[in-house]
Amino acid sequence: MLKELFSKSKKKKYATIPTERNKQDVPEGIMTKCPECKKIMYTKDLIKNKKVCSICGHHLRMNANERIECTLDEGSFREMDELLISVNPLQFPGYEDKLEIDRLKTQMNEAVVTGTGKISGMDVAIAIMDANFRMGSMGSAVGEKITNAVELAREKKIPFLIFTASGGARMQEGILSLMQMAKTSAALKHFSDEGGLFISIMTHPTTGGVSASFASLGDYNLAEPGALIGFAGRTVIEQTIREELPADFQSAEFLMKHGQLDAVISRLEL
After folding, report:
1. Full-model pTM
2. What's residue 27's pLDDT?
3. H or E element: which one contains 208?
4. Of 19, 61, 146, 196, which residue is least crowded by CB atoms under 10 Å?
5. 148-161 burial string, b = 16+ CB within 10 Å, else e?
């Protein structure tokens, strides 16, 4: 009896495999790791802090609904063109299936949500791109929705805001996608000629044809800290000019330093 009482317990040779019951004790998604500083935090605290890491200030990706909640007055948003969707004009193999997968995954019909709302009681037209849908790529439907939102702002004489997040023009629609650069830019020119206020807020990432068109045409061009903003990829540019680019090249801070932005503003202060 004494021998059993004072004997050392043997260490387990192998780690215990969690049972299904134990796994259920910690709900999926309760914790989130910051991709920058690797700090693990409660997801609810991260969301409360507008998805900005409380340790390093890294801005994690937001979806369109989260942007609406933290930007507009509660209950003021009214969506427009919600049923407008892309088709497959070039009969690109598998394109329609990929669109349907993203619709189910994001509960969105396209890579941008547009509509009207209020900020501190002031009416605004707004467009919010969502990188969770086809990496926020711009196809015909995206260009049409943004153009319609700009034209509504011109008609109602209210400011237009856009949050950009995009990998660029959508290759599956070819030249029809690239045409959206001109269409959206023309709509913004008419809006500007009539004295309309356009504020562009670039988030991570804003690249390709989106950065080369409407994203850079704001009366005020703003960006979130650390956002990747540029046209061609870093590797392509380095191979073309045969030079090594600065470490912070195409970051929001780099663009601010070189006069391409009006301000880099934390999401917590925006």
Report:
1. 0.87
2. 60
3. helix 208-211
4. 19
5. bbbebbbeeebbbb
